[in-house]
User: What shape does this take?
Amino acid sequence: MSLIELEHVHRTFRRPDGTVVYAVHDVSLTVADGTTVAIIGESGSGKSTLGRLVLGLLTPDSGRVAFEGKTLSTLSAEEIRRQRARIGVVFQEPFEQLNPRLKVGAIVEEPLIIHAPNLKAEERRQRVSALLQEVDLDPQIAARYPQALSGGQQQRVGIARALIMQPSLVVLDEPTSSLDLSVRAQILNLFGRLKQARGLTYMFISHDITTVEYFSDHVVVLYLGRVVEQGPTAKVLRQPRHPYTQALLSARLSVDPSVSPPHLPLTGDPPSPTRLVSGCPLVGRCPIETPECARAPIALQTKDEDHRVACLRA
Assistant: This one.
């Protein structure tokens, strides 16, 4: 069953001078229940905008975003509030997602006060204590302020807050990028354990290809707000078909310093997101492009079972 469905979603922003920025363009994808789908691409590719559309924090200009079969744009304010309780989110910077004026216990408890007002105070405290233990924190930490914690501890508090309403989906927006390597591994293992124990579904937004390969089931590659390749992680990352995906993967560092991965250079600079490209967005940079690539939009095509690529020459 699909937990999240996006159908031909478009989202633009308007700058103060009136210029239109095309952040997400004609994106269609599904996130199956119990899976981890990674969204990868360069900075400015539309990853975080896509996450905010799924969270209901942004409304698409056109297209459909559905969660658990319900189209978010058709829901009332009260229904949206209930749906948001079913979606958790963990952000990139641990400290920035925590209110420095509140103690840890109050931070984790706050969603219960908003979304479950009938719960008694003692029951809320018990849930907070149990969840802090589940994310490998001493319940006594509830009496401390977030600025007194390490980065790893702060991120665990953020995870506890994201899970306190028992969501079915958690959006992970670069959740480990600001942590050191040892803590990063601990947090990823924690995510894996929580997924198994709670039956969670993750949308994992990241630029760390190695982490994506280790952590995700499926990969969606974004370039200039468009999906250029998607499919099972093993196929997309080990047998990339789109030139942009190949270039993205060739830019990562090898874990073995004696091994240099083949490099696929892209010429020139990415086009401005204020200009809507009619054909392939990689035209002008692609080493295998043809004149046909610039003429009309190129739809995702199935190349190998569920491995889909938006390229005429893939």
About this structure: The two ends are 29 Å apart (CA to CA). Residues 181-198 form the longest helix (18 residues). The mean pLDDT is 91.
